């Protein structure tokens, strides 16, 4: 049985470059709060764009009515 892990799992020929230390580590609660805030922001953007799209669609319909008459 192999007890030395370096023999069992030798390093690759091209080791991965050293990863820089991450200065910001968030807790799960902080990450969830951030995701919630971003989701709410995206929801507000979606709602705003949806209203704008509906407004443009109604303006288009109104313009088409004027051209038909």
Defining key terms:
about 70 residues, mainly alpha, 2 helices, elongated
Helix content percent band: 55-70%
Beta-strand residue percentage: under 5%
Rounded Rg = 28 Å
Low-confidence runs: none
Largest sheet: none
The secondary-structure element order is: HH
Tally of contiguous helical segments: 2
Determine the mean pLDDT.
Answer: 82
N-C termini distance: 90 Å
SS-based class: mainly alpha
Query: Shape, please?
Result: elongated
Q: Name the quaternary structure.
A: single chain
Number of strands: 0
Write the layout of secondary structure elements.
Layout: H1 5-8, H2 28-68
How does this model look, in words?
By secondary structure, the chain is an all-alpha fold. The chain has a domain at 28-68. The protein has 2 helices and no strands. It has helices at residues 5-8, 28-68. The radius of gyration is 28 Å and the shape is elongated. The mean pLDDT is 82.
């Amino acid at each position: 049985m192999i007890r030395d892990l370096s023999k069992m799992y030798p390093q690759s020929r091209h080791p991965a470059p050293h990863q820089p230390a991450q200065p910001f580590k968030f807790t799960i609660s902080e990450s969830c709060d951030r995701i919630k805030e971003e989701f709410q922001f995206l929801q507000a953007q979606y709602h705003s764009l949806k209203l704008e799209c509906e407004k443009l669609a109604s303006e288009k319909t109104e313009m088409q009515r004027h051209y038909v008459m």
